[in-house]
Structures are given as structure tokens and as C-alpha cells.
Amino acid sequence: MRTRFLIAAGALVLAGHAHAQPPSPLVDAEWLSDQLGHDDLVVLDVRSSIDNGGDRASFEKARIPGSRYSSYTDAGWRENRDGVAGLMPDIEALETLIGELGIDNDDTVVVVSAGTGATDFGSAARIYWTFKALGHDEVAVLNGGFAGWQAQDFEVASGAYDAPEAATFEANREEELLATTEEVEAAIETGETLVDARPVDFYTGKTQSSAARAPGTIPGAVNLPHHDALVERDGAYYLEPERLKANIEALDLDPEAPTVAFCNTGHWAASGWFQLSEIGGFDNAAMYDGSMAEWTQDDARPLQLAERGIVTVGEAVE
User: Fold this and answer.
1) Are residues 183 and 307 in the same domain?
2) How many CB atoms lie within 10 A of CB 170?
3) Is the pTM of this model over 0.85?
């Protein structure tokens, strides 16, 4: 049964409760509705222009009661560094970003994307991965995002948004969740599982991202397109675990093997990592946030193209 709330502009009329229930990685709107009002629950809305998801003005027009706003694309969750787009910022910058959202180490965070497309889902997945990589395990993604919340007719708030009082967030970086270029090179040599989360045309080399210097994929990688397990219902996009598990089984992947997800700039890869690690049960999955943007910086690195086989980046660029 849904719990309904009447909301004044920007204010949540609820008595706080002690502790939110520990979430599963992917929660639905009914679960979140039941948890609203707990003192340690933070609903973090990360809508952006991706898939026409909106911005702060959209958030102020309609949002989940009590939620806080941080633009996925503009607030500093990713950065460009050394010519590579989409990298994880340094720890201190992220601690400041998260603390200024009023989030501390005792909070349970539910990340809410717009819910307006499959690429938009990666916004929530990437911020979820960031919290996990910083050692914060009490985090979840709202399946369907804000579009799903609205489509299911849960209450919304509106009005001017006042930033919360800053808190102290201290990170404890989990290195095993972040794969480096050197580790990906080693994975090729040892035959570890590499998963390309891009749509198939990028995987085969038919399409090239502007962020990468050359088309193609990392040799030996299999393709698990980030969008294949996401379905649209009533204008909102939901991840379907059963469809995902069927896709994983079709690739005959070993959930116990070391696995690295990648894409062009670490966005679709975040969806791939989330799907493999948090839904698919892969216990040793990491994400290569530099992805093809970083991989193709070196002319000597290998690429695999469907029509040419294995070539070097330099040969593919020529």
C-alpha cells in the first residue's frame, strides 16, 4: 500500500524516523515512498540534459518530496583530465561535493535520475558507482527514475529549492572498483573478462565516439549493450533484472571471474558495471572510467574491428 504525502512548496510535512531500511541496489517507487521521512535517508535527484531529463528548474517544478538536487553533468561528478573526458575526480573534490549536499557517512542515499531514457539511467548508475568507490555502501538507484515516480502517481513537491546544511563526508576509496589502463592491458594478456557496454555499432567499429581517437573495441571484449535490459513503460525507463540475466547468460560469462566494464567515457560503462555487479551477481567487477577515450590515446595500443580484425590505434587512425 502506498503512503501518500501532502507537500507544501519545498517542505516535507513528516515526522522524522530513526533509520531507513537498508536498500537493495535497485529500489522501486513504493519502497522509496515507504521510507520517506527517515532522518538518515537522502533522495538525491541528478537530472540533467541527458535524454532531455531536465535541470534545476525542472526539479523545482516537480520533485520527490524532500529530495536534494545535484546535476549529473554540471555539479562535478566527473571531470576532464589530460585530454580524457568523464574521469573520476580526486577524493577531496568528491568529499566536498557530497558534503555540501548535506550527506554524511551515516546516510542512506537513493539516486534518482530523470528516468527518461536508457542513457539517462547511466547517470544514476555512475553516481551509485562513485559512492561505492568511495566506500559508501548504503546507496541505491530508483528504478524508473523521477518519470517512473510520476507515472505511478506518487506525490510530488514543488517550489524553490534551498540547499541543505553542509555535512562532513569522509571517503575510503575502494580501489578494486576502478580499473586502470595498465590493469586493462594486463587483462588482455591473462584473458580476464572485458565487457563493452556500448551499443553494437560502437563495439564493431561501425560507429565512433567523438571522445575516442579511433573506432573499435578492446581485443577480447564481449558486448553487453547498456540499454538492452531497459524497457519503457508509460514514458519511464526501467531496468528489468530477468531480461538482464538472460542477456548475461547468453554471453556465457563467469560471475566469479574478474570482470571490467568499459564504454567511451565511463558513462554507459557505469550501467554495465551496475548491471553486472549489483544485479548480475558478479563479485569481482570493476569499471574502466577512462574507457575508449583513454585507451585510444596511445597509438601502440590494440583495437579490434569487425571488418579489419586486430590493429593498433595508430593504424586505425590513419
Assistant:
1) yes
2) 13
3) yes
Number of domains comprising the chain: 2
Paired sense of beta strands 302-305 and 309-312, if any: antiparallel
Only one residue has cell 579489419, namely 308
Radius of gyration of the chain, Cα coordinates, nearest whole angstrom? 20
13 neighbors 6 (Cβ within 8 angstroms): yes
- On whether residue 157 sits in a domain, the answer given is no
Residue 92 burial (C-beta neighbours within 10 Å; 0-12, 13-18, 19+): exposed
**Is 170 inside a domain boundary?**
no
Host domain of residue 192: 175-317
Residue 1 inside a domain? The answer is no
Q: Is residue 131 part of a domain?
A: yes
C-beta separation of 158 from 60 below 8 A: yes
Q: Of 144, 169, 121, which Cα lies nearest the Cα of 274?
A: 121
**Residues 189 and 87 placed together within one structural domain of the fold:** no
Q: Domain of 212: which CATH number? A: 3.40.250.10
Tens digit of each residue's pLDDT, the chain (318 residues): 333 322 333 333 333 445 788 899 999 999 999 999 999 999 999 999 999 999 999 999 999 999 999 999 999 999 999 999 999 999 999 999 999 999 999 999 999 999 999 999 999 999 999 999 999 999 999 999 999 999 999 999 999 999 899 999 999 999 999 999 999 999 999 999 999 999 999 999 999 999 999 999 999 999 999 999 999 999 999 999 999 999 999 999 999 999 999 999 999 999 999 999 999 999 999 999 999 999 999 999 999 999 999 999 999 998
